[in-house]
Specification:
The chain has 8 helices and 10 strands. By secondary structure, it is of the alpha+beta class. It has 2 domains: 191 residues, Electron Transport, Fmn-binding Protein, Chain A (Pnp Oxidase, Chain A), CATH 2.30.110.10; 49 residues, no CATH class. This is Purtative protein.
Length: 249
């Protein structure tokens, strides 16, 4: 991922928070196979274990029928637990991404018209060594724990009493586990790019912020929030903070 310094996020704790907030990551591998495309990507919801390894560990699962899983199983060559020959990549993205119209870049547009469209977004990219759990009792134990952990993680985001895996018959759960493989990624590198107009001059930055505010949408409000979180000491933000402090005193 191309990351300009002004957009870079290398704070591991902040990147871990991002992954926890948006756990659906695009898992990409490059595994040579005679009948399956080498490059494969699958959307997988992950559980992050931040306190394991240097940068954390991700655990997830995928359908055994998935061509990517078939390539993984083929490389395992009958081994029930197998470490892939090459590292994999997982890309996590925020749904709060948006097109930025040049009309919002009010200062430069008025001054010389030299403005172009752009996009704002946030993403975290993870590299790591992959261990695949493909068969046998160790794989079944891994998958049982992983599915339970993922369910608890996601049920906590839904109002009401959480559903638990043991509410379904164990015979049913066991049959489903046979249809998936487990994945464990020991993270070796994690980096983020959060492009929310940090590189824009103050006048254009404020024009973009006000433009998204005026849209009156949930997405617009989230973009404004992300811009303000990374806005630093922009004059308009400093003035707003000062006004807010005066009003509350």
């Amino acid at each position: 991922m191309y990351i300009r310094p002004v957009h870079a996020e290398l704070d591991v704790a902040k990147l871990h928070d991002f992954v926890r907030t948006w756990p659906l990551g695009q898992f990409t591998t490059a595994i040579p196979h005679p009948t399956i495309d080498t490059l494969q990507t699958t959307h997988i919801p992950w559980v992050l274990y931040a306190d394991e390894g240097e940068f954390g560990v991700l655990r997830g699962h995928m359908a055994r029928a998935n061509p990517q899983a078939k390539a993984i199983v083929a490389q395992a060559a009958g081994s029930p637990v197998h470490e892939l020959a090459d590292d994999a990549l997982v890309l996590f993205t925020s749904p709060h991404n948006a097109y930025v119209t040049p009309r919002y870049m009010t200062a430069t547009k008025q001054e010389n018209g030299k403005v172009t469209p752009t996009w704002v977004f946030g993403a975290a990219q993870v590299y790591g060594r992959v261990r695949a759990y493909t068969s046998g009792t160790e794989a079944d134990a891994f998958l049982s724990q992983q599915v339970d952990a993922l369910t608890r993680q996601q049920e906590a985001t839904v109002p009401g009493k959480p559903w638990t895996v043991d509410e379904a018959p164990e015979s049913y759960n066991a049959r489903l586990r046979k249809a998936i493989i487990g994945l464990e990624i020991t993270i070796t590198k994690i980096e983020g790019r959060f492009k929310f107009s940090q590189d824009e001059a103050d006048g254009d930055w404020e024009g973009i912020r006000q433009g998204f505010k005026a849209e009156g949408s949930v997405l617009g409000a989230e973009v404004v929030k992300a811009m303000e979180e990374r806005g630093g000491d922009r004059p308009s933000l400093v003035a707003e903070r000062a006004a807010g402090a005066s009003a509350s005193s």
